[in-house]
Amino acid sequence: MSSFPYRVSFMIVAAKSEIGLKKCMAKFREKEVFFMTIKLFYEDSYITNFTAHTWEQFTDEANRSYIVLDQTAFYPTGGGQPYDTGTLNGVQVLEVEDVDGQIRHYVDEPLPQQDAVQGQINWKRRFDHMQQHAGQHILSAAFEDQLGYSTVSFHLGQDVCTIDLEVAQLSEKDVAVVEAFANDIIQQNLPIETKWVTEEELSQYSLRKQLAVSENIRLVIIPNVDYSGCGGTHPSSTGQVSAISVLKIEKQKNQTRVYFVCGHRVTNELRTKQAVVQGLTNLLNVPESKLVSAAERVLLQSKEYEKTIDELNEKLLAIEAKDLLHEASSIHDLKIVQMISYEYRMKDLQKLAKMVLKEDPAVVVFFVSERDNKMQIVCGRGETDLDMNLALKGVLPLINGKGGGKKDFAQGGGEPIRSAEEVMMELVKTVR
């Protein structure tokens, strides 16, 4: 391994030949020189294997190991496109970043000392990114051409890609027109070219959007379709994008977000959705064409069942309220309705307590429920002047609980670290 005498940031590649590289390294050893790794992915985005003869490894501020090479085919995160993964001498590359011109290959373990480093790109991931990125160029150009809507941002996600359009509303009809136009461009199998130009040469091209840089300008060109400044990787023709499918659209303030997939992701999306559709047709026992109406019918029935269940539950709670009143105990001429439950949830506890108080406003209600590894408490009173909120706050520390309310009605919950019986005894003590 050739070792650098300084930890530096590489900013310009001065040599693309072995002789030029040796001269560059000799000069580097004489004094600190700043240069950047040769970016092989710009020379050919289809490179999957490469060899680096000069390299060094470092540790960043977060104690992560990273490798710097004299040349690399690993694409770093940038321009909306995620980084490449793969291996360096068999060691996994976890992330790739461009830090002030220095391309860092973060690895899961330090590399053993060797004279050269053999890089291997994860081609499946790289080609997927190439398809999505080129697809975004085509889709954005289609929205611009067919509707005059500009793309303001792009995100290449692990499963789905998005673009944000500078328009507040977008109809499904508009989407269908644009999607068909974009797929027609793909089927024409037009060339996708890249070209380095100067700022003065930009006037020769009809750019889709304003550039963010004024030097080292790289254009991605689909003749008569799209001319955009871009630093990402792309296939050599539109046909290799295979297909574009818009999945959905949603409003984002004054913009519209378009979710889409390209290439192999279209097939994966179709396969996933087909599995869901087939599962529903089997479950509902209807053909695919009647799935929506069948689902609507099931939802309507479900709402009717829920309404019936709520009505029956109300009746059961009303009966329970009367039974509890019959079992009420008296302390100092005050009737107390106590209940320990292992079934009721907080919503039903509150409802039941109010039913009891409505039946007999003179009583005090103490309910404790223990279920789902939770302790829940409801305290209520009618015409008496006892402070239910104060009674609740007195027992909450026993269960590491939280809660509160008003003087006539309070509720809370916590952990069942004390038994429901112990908690009830402490509540009753507040009356005694």
Description:
This protein is α+β, with helices and mostly antiparallel strands and 432 residues long. It has three domains: 18-121, Elongation Factor Tu (Ef-tu), domain 3 (Beta Barrel), CATH 2.40.30; 127-276, Threonyl-tRNA Synthetase, Chain A, domain 2 (2-Layer Sandwich), CATH 3.30.980.10; 315-431, Roll (Diaminopimelate Epimerase, Chain A, domain 1), CATH 3.10.310.40. Helices cover 34% and strands 28% of the residues. It contains nine helices and 22 strands. The chain has helices at residues 18-30, 40-43, 123-147, 172-187, 264-284, 291-326, 346-359, 388-395, 420-431, and strands spanning 38-39, 49-52, 55-59, 65-69, 71-72, 86-88, 91-99, 102-107, 117-121, 151-156, 161-165, 193-197, 217-222, 226-229, 244-252, 255-262, 329-331, 334-341, 364-371, 374-381, 402-405, 409-414. The strands form five sheets. Strands 2-9-6-7-8-4-3 form a seven-stranded antiparallel sheet, with no helix packed on it. A six-stranded mixed sheet has the order 17-18-19-20-22-21, sandwiched between helices. The protein has a four-stranded antiparallel sheet with strand order 10-11-16-15. Strand 15 and strand 16 form a beta hairpin. Helix 6 crosses helix 7 (346-359) and helix 8 packs across helix 9. The relative contact order is 0.07. Residues 1-35 have low confidence and may be disordered.
